Amino acid sequence: MTRPEQVAENIALVREKLRQARRVVVLTGAGVSAESGVPTFRGAGGMWRTYRATDLATPEAFTKNPQLVWEFYNYRREVLHPLQPNAAHKALAALEKRCQHFVLLTQNIDGLHQAAGSRAVLELHGNIWWVRCTGCGLKAEDRRVPIPFPPHCDACGGMLRPDVVWFGESLDSGVLHRAYTTLEECDLMLVIGTSGVVQPAASMGLYAQQHGAFVVEINLEPTPYSRAFDVSLLGKAGKLVPQLVKEPI
Ligand code: OAD
């Protein structure tokens, strides 16, 4: 249990580091969107407790039963489309405006960072509001809810799939390259609302730390990395992130 004065000291320390930092990187996971009403994947109420990821979020599942996979993604679109960015998303968008060099890496596919005003966003796992043709690879934004089945590519007639990364698939190599470059160059990194179990995102905090960054974790509960990082702040992102970045910094 951390003493309240220790929490206040840690917040003051992170604010000072943010003031000094020249290059800031943020990595977010499902926890940053939880207070907007987006279900997380693990823990109480986590999505993977209700659905088996291997039945729904793998290329094999899509080959076997594309309709079922599209039903799942249409359901997720229905859940997501009325949701709004929360105080953590907004605070990160405000932080970006103040930083000379800022990159936000997110594992989330919900688009809420961009809705809050974040611009320098690298989506490691894709975006649920985009589709990709399984034939010609063309990508397009498609905000229909639901997308009627079977969805076809306007260009080649091929079957469309959600433009997200499924289990067993590689992340986009261009996105990964840019992510690692920013991790190597940053001097401060915030790791917010991720359980740290899905690679390669899980080890990005350590990677930045090994390259000299001061790494701060913000999570409701400890993760496998909490002790390794420089500071671990336990609590809700919607409360802590605005405290860290509120002006004057
Ligand atoms: P998880 O569901 O694994 O973890 C969510 C984390 O957020 C947990 O550590 C929670 O303790 C924390 N959390 C929950 N509410 C919070 C709050 N209000 N404030 C701060 N922290 C909070 O989600 P991810 O780590 O993002 O991948 O999962 C990683 C990947 O696994 C996802 O991108 C997805 C999933 O399978 C793919 O679909 C490829």
What report would you give on this structure?
This protein has 2 domains: 4-37 and 85-125 and 171-245, TPP-binding domain (Rossmann fold), CATH 3.40.50; 53-81 and 134-164, 2-Layer Sandwich (SIR2/SIRT2 'Small Domain'), CATH 3.30.1600.10. The chain has 249 residues and is an alpha/beta fold. Strand 2 (101-106), helix 8 (112-116) and strand 3 form a beta-alpha-beta unit. The radius of gyration is 19 Å and the shape is elongated. It has helices at 4-20, 31-34, 47-50, 53-56, 59-64, 66-80, 87-98, 112-116, 173-185, 204-210, 237-245; strands at residues 23-28, 101-106, 121-123, 126-133, 139-141, 160-164, 188-192, 214-219, 231-234. Helix 1 packs across helix 11 and helix 7 packs parallel to helix 11. The strands form 2 sheets. It has a 6-stranded parallel beta sheet with strand order 3-2-1-7-8-9, sandwiched between helices. Strands 5-4-6 form a 3-stranded antiparallel beta sheet, with helices on one face. The protein has 11 helices and 9 strands. The longest helix is centred in the first third of the chain and has 17 residues, at 4-20. The chain binds 2'-O-acetyl adenosine-5-diphosphoribose. 2'-O-acetyl adenosine-5-diphosphoribose is lined by residues 29-31, 34-35, 40-43, 46, 57, 107, 125, 165, 193-195, 198, 218-221, 223, 236-237.
Distance between the termini: 27 Å
Reading off the top of the CATH hierarchy, the class of the largest domain is best stated as Alpha Beta
Mean pLDDT: 95
Per the principal axes of the C-alpha atoms, what is the gross shape? elongated
- Total number of strands: 9
What fraction of residues sit in β-strands?
15-25%
In CATH terms, what is the architecture of the largest domain? Answer: 3-Layer(aba) Sandwich
Low-confidence stretches: none
- What is the CATH H-level superfamily of the largest domain? TPP-binding domain
CATH-derived topology of the largest domain:
Rossmann fold
Radius of gyration: 19 Å
Strand order of the largest sheet: 3-2-1-7-8-9
Total helical elements: 11
Q: Classify the secondary structure makeup into a structural class.
A: alpha/beta
Q: Which kinds of small molecule does this entry bind, naming each only once?
A: 2'-O-acetyl adenosine-5-diphosphoribose
Helix content: 25-40%
- Tally of discrete structural domains: 2
> Which sequence of SSEs, written as H and E, runs from N to C?
HEHHHHHHEHEEEEHEHEEH
Taking the sheet with the most strands, its summary is: 6 strands, parallel
